[in-house]
Amino acid sequence: MATTRTATTQWKGALLDGSGTVSLDTSGVGTFDVSWPSRAEAANGKTSPEELIAAAHSSCFSMALSAGLAKAGTPPQSLETRADVTFQPGEGITGIVISVRGQVPGISAEDFQQAAEAAKANCPVSKALAGTTITLNAEFVG
User: Fold this and answer.
1) Which residues form the signal peptide (predicted)?
2) Which of 36, 63, 66, 89 is the most exposed place for a label (fewest CB within 10 A)?
3) Which among 96, 94, 99 has a CA at the least distance from the CA of 82?
4) 31 has which bridge partners?
């Protein structure tokens, strides 16, 4: 069954001096301030579209990797995934680096790398961001 998730942004003013809020409507877990300076300069306690993409990508990748490892009979003990989304004003999003550290008993570092590559290729957020260069750094800790 398909699911739809919703977020809403309320924006006031022009791009450079305006600001807004993003609310996570489906979950209701929060409303977050956004502004151009928080996107193109220092965050200063506000979020950005790129930070929200990083959150979506790191969580989706973790789920995809966990599912793949479990399907292979080696569920992870723990995964820590970080997504760094780079935004260049005037160009847009120029790249994403996914860094994952995994503790997975019963597999080799090579098997972990292969599973991570498969998760990168098949995670629905990775697929949605296919027009962006996505780099993977996988660290196997046993």
Assistant:
1) none
2) 89
3) 99
4) 23
